[in-house]
Write a structure and sequence with these properties.
9 strands, binds magnesium ion, binds adenosine-5'-diphosphate, three-stranded mixed sheet, alpha/beta
Length: 440
């Protein structure tokens, strides 16, 4: 039987046979030391976060799914850690291995997640669940918020943390859409073997974008069984969604009411200083070049609606500098982001047009829609604006909030809901909305 260090040496040997000498040198030259082995998880030390990101992205699956199983029959997994992380991992008693993880992305960790006012509650709840998944305190944990704000990241961080601390946990990450597809495929062919293999005996279920199960009664029924089975056994479920449980439409009530049993937490848009923090961290992970502070501030100022766009902009700046073989400077950054920034402006023009059409219909000013007056006419126009920005432009509550004088996202959410409800009975309102939509 191989000792952990011996195993890592063999893995390196195999990698060196498969990669070009230069590539191998670049990634693995300084990755030599096994820090420890615990519960079948072997921690190998890497010198920098940048290198870890690269190894996880490019080689993690090959190492763990191809190479390790050929070298040993033991259930073992290799993870990459930084020197300063080694002490903090706790030990857990070791039952027989039954490891299985599905679809976890190694780069979504708690360490790579920047915490701020916009996501602190969600982060705290997620880390509590990760540290003690058997406590049953928050079951299910329900995380909701707009697109690109870190829901998937946080949910996967829970999975990665648990899997790094105990290899004997079956963790399944699945997009609700894929769950439904798996179910439809199984029931269509009347062959549930694969489906059951994947979805039974789960210790931790991470189900992403649950709103995708809307109007899919068969999948909901199946999920209802899984949900009850797991919660009865005190197994943890984490759910994400773009809205609260009560706002989900096309769902069986008994399902959505259960979603509220545990804890619901929201994530909203990061403020400016948090955006800068996120960029700093991502820059360190993505490039060995220095990204100057004025470039980070510039990006943080221009890309405010979600973290995905923020990260996309940073990627573009870095790639541009690599292709052109130039330093990263404010001037170069502006040039590489020019097209993206123009497209944001165009969108903003569209929203302005939308507000001015609504203002026109109610014979008021756009500034009144944005302002604070509570006169019936003005607040109706304001709520219609919220509703149309949400349904036609598919903006997030937070984005709409930022267009409408930084109102918070619960105000926007309740405005949208109010209009949506009233449209069911109020013919006059219906006509107004139709007229506006025609003009846009
Ligand atoms: P969502 O699931 O809410 O649509 P994601 O989790 O996919 O959003 O996040 C989009 C991108 O932004 C991912 O690359 C993720 O790593 C990054 N991201 C989001 N929030 C944070 C954060 N607080 N710190 C670091 N990265 C973040
Ligand atoms: Mg997501």
């Amino acid at each position: 039987m191989l000792d952990p260090q011996g195993l890592w040496n063999e893995v390196k040997e195999k990698l060196s046979n498969n990669l070009s000498p230069a590539t191998f040198e670049n990634s693995f030259k300084d990755v030599n030391v096994v820090a420890k082995e615990e519960n079948g998880v072997i921690s190998v030390v890497v010198p920098t976060a940048f290198l870890r990101q690269r190894i996880n992205t490019l080689y993690y699956n090959t190492i763990n799914n191809d190479i390790v199983p050929k070298l040993t029959t033991q259930k073992l997994k290799i993870i990459f850690v930084l020197e300063n992380e080694i002490q903090s991992k706790k030990s857990v008693p070791q039952p027989q291995p039954k490891m299985s993880t599905y679809n976890l992305n190694r780069n979504y960790s708690f360490e790579s997640f920047v915490v701020g006012e916009s996501n602190r509650n969600a982060y705290l709840a997620a880390s509590k669940v990760a540290e003690n998944p058997k406590s049953g305190l928050f079951n299910p944990l329900y995380i909701f918020g707009g697109v690109g704000l870190g829901k998937t990241h946080l949910m996967q961080a829970i999975g990665n943390y648990i899997s790094d601390n105990d290899i004997n946990t079956k963790i399944v990450y699945v997009q609700a859409q894929d769950y439904s597809n798996d179910y439809i495929k199984a029931s269509g062919s009347k062959d549930f073997k694969q489906f059951d293999e994947k979805y039974s005996d789960i210790d931790i279920l991470l189900i992403d974008d649950i709103q995708m199960l809307s109007k899919k009664p068969g999948s909901q029924e199946q999920f209802f069984k899984l949900f009850n089975d797991m919660t009865n056994k005190n197994k943890q479920i984490v759910i994400t969604s773009d809205r609260t449980p009560t706002q989900l439409e096309g769902f069986m009530d008994r399902l959505t009411s259960r979603f509220s049993f545990g804890l619901s937490v929201d994530i909203h848009q990061p403020d400016y200083s948090q955006r800068v923090e996120i960029l700093k961290k991502k820059a360190l992970e993505k490039t060995e070049k220095t990204v100057p502070d004025n470039v980070l501030s510039f990006i943080a100022e221009k890309f405010s609606s979600n973290v995905r766009d923020l990260e996309g902009a940073l990627n573009r700046v870095i790639q541009f500098s690599e292709w052109e073989n130039k330093e990263i400077t404010l001037e170069n950054a502006k040039q590489s982001l020019d097209i993206l920034i123009k497209s944001i402006k165009k969108e903003d023009n569209d929203y302005e047009k939308c507000l001015s059409v609504i203002a026109g219909l109610y014979n008021i000013d756009v500034s009144e829609i944005i302002g604070v007056s509570r006169k019936t006419k003005i607040s109706t126009a304001r709520q219609i604006s919220m509703y149309i920005l949400k349904t036609k432009y598919e903006l997030t509550y937070s984005k709409i909030g930022s267009i409408l004088n930084n109102r918070d996202h619960s105000t926007i959410m309740s405005g949208c809901n109010k209009i949506e409800n009233e449209l069911k009975t109020d013919e006059e309102l219906k006509l107004a909305v139709e007229t506006i939509l025609k003009k846009l």
